[in-house]
Design brief:
Order of helices and strands: EHHEEHHH
Number of helices: 5
Oligomer: single chain
Largest sheet: 3 strands, mixed
Helix content: 55-70%
Structural class: alpha+beta
Shape: elongated
Radius of gyration: 25 Å
Strand content: 5-15%
Length: 111
């Protein structure tokens, strides 16, 4: 990630259209200052959406990690996996296929 272009608000105001084109075409960020302090930033819509997606993902991860006992459970699962426990990718595929087959409308099997 490249460093943002840092400009005072007066210059951004006079070059706004040019700066929007720059941000849109190059993905560069423009940090706007007011009275020498950072105020806002210009970022492309694609970058904003990517940042929002990353924030949402991190929030979901934090919500899971806040569940009581989850870290101990993850440590147990990791130890079991390292000891050779768990299933192979092929076994997992077969289990998921069987589950999907059972969940098909009209299926007589009960889980």
């Amino acid at each position: 990630m490249s460093m943002p272009i840092i400009l005072p608000i007066a210059e951004v105001r006079s070059r706004f259209s040019e700066l929007v084109s720059l941000v849109e075409s190059s993905g560069r960020r423009v940090a706007v200052t007011r009275n020498g302090r950072g105020a806002v930033a210009l970022v492309s819509l694609g970058e904003l959406e990517a940042l929002e997606d990353r924030i949402e993902s991190l929030e979901e991860t934090l919500a899971v990690l806040r569940e009581p006992g989850i870290l101990a459970e993850l440590a147990e699962e990791e130890a079991e996996f390292e000891a050779g426990g768990g299933v192979t990718g092929e076994e997992l595929d077969a289990m998921l296929a069987e589950r999907a087959r059972r969940e098909q409308p009209g299926s007589q099997d009960v889980a």
